[in-house]
Design a protein that fits this description.
The chain is α/β, with parallel strands linked by helices and 400 residues long. It is built from 18 helices and twelve strands. It has three domains: 206 residues, Rossmann fold, CATH 3.40.50.300; 77 residues, Helicase, Ruva Protein, domain 3, CATH 1.10.8; 83 residues, Winged helix-like DNA-binding domain superfamily/Winged helix DNA-binding domain (Arc Repressor Mutant, subunit A, Orthogonal Bundle), CATH 1.10.10.10. The chain is flat.
Length: 400
């Protein structure tokens, strides 16, 4: 028999009740309000581990921005895709929308002349566009920053004159290439200096703070940085209880507390566990016994999905590095301790470290310390037979 389930675990899937993000939503909504008044504002960067709801949050913010009449486009950065061509396509979409307003056609044509790194043909009578990315070397040259700045200032001017503010939502920023990120920061900085209503809402793993500050020192003044973490007890309680109220279902206090302890307040874990618990529970009151009976399926679902998909992206050398991190015990751990557990020098493991950071498996925090980007990843590793076997092998290996 089919049973409607109100819990929705998934990558970026909007829960039926979004808990714990009210303050972030209110703050950014006020920034959107300023933007609609043609008042330039700082852009916003959200960072956090996997599963804390960064994508869900920026998706909600995009809906709010669209309701305020702001032109919005969502970009998900991927290592295999060209970010610059995505920005170009979004800019084209903005100009196409504004071109429908007769009095701005000449302004659009003028602004298109400033887009140096793109080939765009525009028919002012038919309001039609064609766009193609010019030779790829343009995006690998020193002209990239100037080209993207020209794009941002030209569409920014159009946004100002047409009173149509722009907000680009950029997810997975950590996958941006260095030259792309530097150009984006410079272009946004210049458009802000000129007072144009253009902003960015970005999201990514914790390492993006360092990426931004390393690329441009003034990025600290350009962006509002907000860390997104696990939910506190009260927020977790709402995430657990609110979705089932419409079905007349309640949780006992013990059941709620057990879920909070097991999930540590991570939104994805709450959705995953509650989905299983609700599916298997038969009564209108969910008890701690219902929760405990679901734990096997809960850990299996995480191990075979959320954790496994990331683990399988790792080469053998990556996995050994991960094992050495887990063997440190308490995380974050120092690079020197990881090297010691691998029976190698710090220099010898630097390449693997860089690869794992690039893949988004680990991230650097503080000075020469590392942690996993996925919450509770060390627990998954400890449950692996491969980890136990590696530990035995390392015990038998003579020290350097």
């Amino acid at each position: 028999m089919f049973k409607i389930n109100p819990y929705r675990p998934g990558a970026g899937v909007m829960p039926t009740y979004l808990a714990g993000r009210e303050s972030d939503i209110y703050t950014v909504d006020q920034m959107f309000k300023a933007l609609t008044l043609n008042i330039p504002t700082q852009s916003v960067i959200f960072s956090g581990l996997r599963g804390v709801g960064k994508t869900v949050l920026i998706n909600r913010l995009q809906k709010i921005a669209e309701n305020r009449g702001i032109f919005c486009k969502h970009i998900e950065v991927e290592t295999r895709n060209d970010f610059i061509s995505q920005i170009a396509s979004c800019s084209q979409a903005f100009l196409r929308e504004v071109s429908a307003k007769e009095k701005f056609k000449s302004l659009i044509k003028k602004s298109l002349d400033a887009i140096k790194s793109l080939v765009i043909s525009f028919d002012p009578n038919g309001s039609s566009f064609s766009l193609s990315v010019q030779d790829r070397e343009l995006y690998q040259s020193n002209n990239l920053t100037q080209s993207l700045t020209d794009v941002f200032t030209s569409i920014g001017e159009t946004a100002y004159e047409s009173e149509t503010p722009i907000c680009f939502f950029i997810d997975e920023i950590q996958y941006m290439k260095t030259e792309e990120l530097g150009s984006l920061i410079a272009a946004l900085h210049r458009s802000n200096q000129l007072g144009y209503p253009l902003m960015i809402i970005g999201a990514g793993l914790p390492k993006i703070y360092k990426m931004l500050s390393d690329e441009k020192t003034y990025s600290e003044r350009l962006f509002v940085y907000q860390e997104i973490g696990s939910l506190n007890s009260e927020q977790s309680k709402k995430a657990i209880e609110e979705p089932v109220k419409k079905f007349g279902v309640t949780y006992t206090e013990e059941a709620v507390n057990r879920i909070i302890v097991l999930t540590k307040g991570y939104p994805f874990f709450i959705q995953q566990l509650c989905q299983i618990v609700y599916k298997e529970a038969s009564g209108d009151e969910i008890t701690v016994e219902d929760v405990d009976l679901s734990l096997g399926d809960f850990f299996d679902s995480l191990d075979n999905g959320f954790f496994r998909v990331r683990y399988e992206r790792c080469a053998d050398s990556d996995k050994k590095f991960i094992f050495a991190m887990v063997q440190c015990g308490e995380l974050p751990c120092t690079i020197s301790n990881i090297a010691k557990n691998l029976n190698k020098s710090v220099t010898a493991i630097s390449t693997t470290r860089a690869q794992l950071i690039s893949k988004g498996i680990i991230y650097p925090i503080r000075y020469k310390e590392l942690d996993f980007t996925v919450p509770e990843f060390s627990g998954f590793i400890k449950r692996l037979d491969e980890y136990a076997e590696w530990c035995r092998e390392m015990q038998d290996m003579p020290a350097r």
